[in-house]
Amino acid sequence: MRPLFFSLIFLSLGGTYARALPPVTTDIDGRELENSLQAITKAIVAIPMAGNPPPLYKARVFRKGRFAPRLQAASCATVDFHEKLGEPRNQDGLNWCFGSVAADALSAEIGLRVSDFDLSLRTFASFGKPLGKNESITKLATASINKAVTVARRDGICTEESLPSNDRVLGYLAAEMERNHNPLSSVEMEEWAATTLGKAIRSLEDVRGWSLNRLGAAEATTCDVYKYASSMFPNLDEAQVFQGITSAQSNEALFQWLVSLSCRRQPVVLPKGTRLKQLLPPDNALQGAKGFHLLASMDKRLDKRKPVIVGLNANRFVRDEGSAQHAAIIVGREFRDGKCKYLVRNSAGPGCGQYKDPYGDKYNCSRGHFWITEEDFHQTADFLEFFE
Amino acid sequence: MIFLLLVFFHAGVSLAAESAPLFPESLTCLSEGKIRYLEMGKSKAEIGKFCFSEDRSYFLSESCREKKCAALKASLSEVKHLALAGQVGSPGFKLCRRAGGVPELLDFFDGKKWWSMDRCRFEVDGSFVDTGILLRLWGQAKKP
User: Fold this and answer.
1) CB–CB of B135 and A349 under 8 A?
2) pLDDT tens-digit profile of B14-52?
3) For residue A179, how far is the Cα from the chain centroid?
4) Is 0.90 exceeded by the ipTM?
5) Yes or no, beta carbons of A367 and B104 under 8 Å apart
6) What is the pTM of this model?
7) For chain A, how many helices (H) and strands (E)?
8) From the CB of residue B34, how many other CB atoms can be counted at a distance below 10 Å?
9) Which residues of A59-69 are buried (b: 16+ CB within 10 A; e: fewer)?
């Protein structure tokens, strides 16, 4: 098994480098490489896992291999700051949960509601291709959230006011992108194309890649295109619209360009040293009890009235059981009905009907926020992320 | 014996889930309610008859309150889980499109304050329900 494994590594390395470099002889033999890899593995294992709670906490919450939830209100102090983040976001105006949670986390840090559509659009490239067989959704989620935050810190971000995520045209653009990756039937396409917004978007797509000369020669078409473009993106001038049309390599790139120019991005200023910290359960976490390792860190964060991004298996909570891995924000904690519960802020709009009972009932859900128990959390949570 | 009890318990739970109401009984309805939305950067408004729950988490047209509307007769049973799953978009909007409706983001005015909401609107009679209600309806209609 082991020789085969190393043969594969050598083969893989050889295959990769053979194309770029002339063949060289190496004096590293298999044993040396194995020792080096073992040393690296040991070093990685030795890094303290931030997800491992302190022993006292562990003794209180997890006894004799079984989860022992807190039964006293005193150990589950109330904290609830969901109103600080404003109305819940709606994914269909922007497309993906990772953009929503990144926007909420950033908004809480800088005290300004930022546009989730802007963030989603700029990091949309992560999507479009399905996950590979061995790719982890957790890895994709955390990488996407990190990318969204990094891009925002580097290039600034549109505020929700300057680029509203609930503009229906943005919803249609989002649907169009989804359509590109998951085509609807031709009948649905025709119906959609007949709407005003469908026509507007199509008109831009139809001339994408045209040269300025060609646009100039087709005066009537060009006038219509500009009319549509300026109604969708009123802040843009002719030069910006036509620069996008003539140079964009794809329809998606064209709309990304137009949207990105539509708002003056605000700089994202965070205190020096602030970083988005990521916590994963250790590899040896018990099956079905991964979230337990994250509870202590989350509680600490909530005590400071700071939101926590969490990866959850949504099948437990939502009616669409195909949703599986999903990112949301935890914005509160309270001792309710004899249990310590956490308040999940989702990004599927303000409705409650989409959640299974009891999560969707009137005692547990209001305006897109719902309460889950400690047990729910420790059985479904995959990762945490928060600014520190 | 325990097995039978478990079967009965499971059946009871299933029945309870199936018969759960689509929306709360106690609703406030407005005959000239205000709705607003953004389209192409411009704010637009419309007046309509709609109802909402006490906590503003449920929203539907007045005709749907009586359960005599196209939105509640939509054919949903054939829509499978996988048709709604994916990394992008929301299940409610996808279900709405597949059911022949038009998903829309909007704000409604309850007489004192504007509330953000979504809806799935059906052209045939102009009726609508929020996408959460539609998902709940789908949960009850889908084949096991």
Assistant:
1) no
2) 444 445 789 999 999 999 999 999 887 788 999 999 999
3) 19
4) no
5) no
6) 0.77
7) 15, 10
8) 16
9) eebbeeeebeb
